[in-house]
Amino acid sequence: MSRDENIGRKDVSKRVERAHRILDVAAALILRWGYNKTTIDDVAREAGVAKGTIYLHWRTREDLFRALIRRERVDMAEEVKQSISQDPMGATLRGILKHLALVIMKRPLMKALLLRDLDVIGKLAHSGNDTFAYMEKLTGFNSYLETLRDHGLIRADLNLKAQMYIFNAIFMGFFLTMPLMPEGFTLSDDEIADLMAETVHCTLEGNLSISADDLKAVSLAFMQYLDHAVAAAKEHLQQELQ
Amino acid sequence: MSRDENIGRKDVSKRVERAHRILDVAAALILRWGYNKTTIDDVAREAGVAKGTIYLHWRTREDLFRALIRRERVDMAEEVKQSISQDPMGATLRGILKHLALVIMKRPLMKALLLRDLDVIGKLAHSGNDTFAYMEKLTGFNSYLETLRDHGLIRADLNLKAQMYIFNAIFMGFFLTMPLMPEGFTLSDDEIADLMAETVHCTLEGNLSISADDLKAVSLAFMQYLDHAVAAAKEHLQQELQ
DNA sequence: ATATGACTATTTATTCATATTTGGTCAATC
DNA sequence: GATTGACCAAATATGAATAAATAGTCATAT
Q1: Does residue A4 reach within 7 angstroms of strand C, measured from its CB?
Q2: Shortest Cα distance, chain B CAs vs residue A221, angstroms
Q3: What is the ipTM of this complex?
Q4: pLDDT, tens only, A136-162
């Protein structure tokens, strides 16, 4: 490794560190004041950099916040991956749902994004309603469901599209019901996650007896996929933050 | 029956008829233009009455639309009752859910109310956020669940609060997911209703074997309750429209 | 080369005056 | 007595003109 590259490396790591510091501030401010009322000046001041510095990282204000969202997603994916890998049943449908739910509940920004909380994401909701990425995610999930089905880990008497819809409805339903329940009918995050998992289990996994081999195979395939996807996303993010 | 009362009757029936005509127009206009942009003048013109006449029925604009919503609820309840009574399994949890869902899907106004579609209900959403009536409905549903449980028609290994939450989450989830699914992943109303029922069945009813006696008992109790509640609501509505 | 913050061109918020719409009333009419 | 629609006050929309806030730039400093 030449000296030039070394120097470059050092510079880059400093830059990335600063980018993260700025995003940290942006995350705190968007949750405190909402996207519409969070200014670049605020972010710069709180992050201890000049405004111009922020524009050395991102071309526009929106770019900055979109980067924040991407980072949030990557961090979440990493956390979910860890969580799943520690649970023998983690790669089952109910496992994924439960771990995903618990991680999201701990992350106010992800929760706000999922629930489309306009107080937080404001105009960020309208612009760039990335349906392409969404479709991509859905089709990715589709192939995961196919794998599960091939290994007998979900019911075979329901078509994929239906199972897809059911999974989505349960996922969104449990989250969206949270703020709708009146006093006395609310449940804790952990209870909700468990019930979500239970619902998916009963409806999509049925009372199929899980073969250890199939579970192992699916877990391996899924973790391998997740490892790869998360690593790529992290790499991509690192690159993006230079 | 004296002649006075007869004359009164006739007048009242005319009045009620007119009230319904006005509400019909209000329903059409609120769906076409939304609450905020539907004026009393519009309603009066379309209904073929003078504006003053409307104020002979309701004290304010909001009262008119709240009456419309009450009527919609009563009509819906009546329709659900009919639908359930024709289905042997109608009074089971999955039966109720399915019939309720199908009826709502056919009623744009109910759908808009359920989904809190601000384009339709506009400022009507904020004012009078009737949590009391909501609580009442929830506790009513609670006791229905208790009856089901006593007759072994739903699982006994989940507490009522949890089952309540699950039911709500499934119900809302399937409805709210409808507009969120992209092209190619959508399902028909009937498919969605069936999947909703299936989900509730798997999760809350389990694979319990239903005793014919218990089913009969629950159906009877439920239909009796529904009959009574709907009749009272209708009576109340009739009274309200004078 | 990197970072800064004063600077500017836009955007957004505020104000104020005017015009229009609309909820609700009530004297006149049927 | 029931119904009407002209009428009014209040609310809402429109627009101009001004002020304030803010995104993004760039000459200068480190």
Answers
A1: no
A2: 25
A3: 0.92
A4: 888 889 999 999 999 999 999 999 999
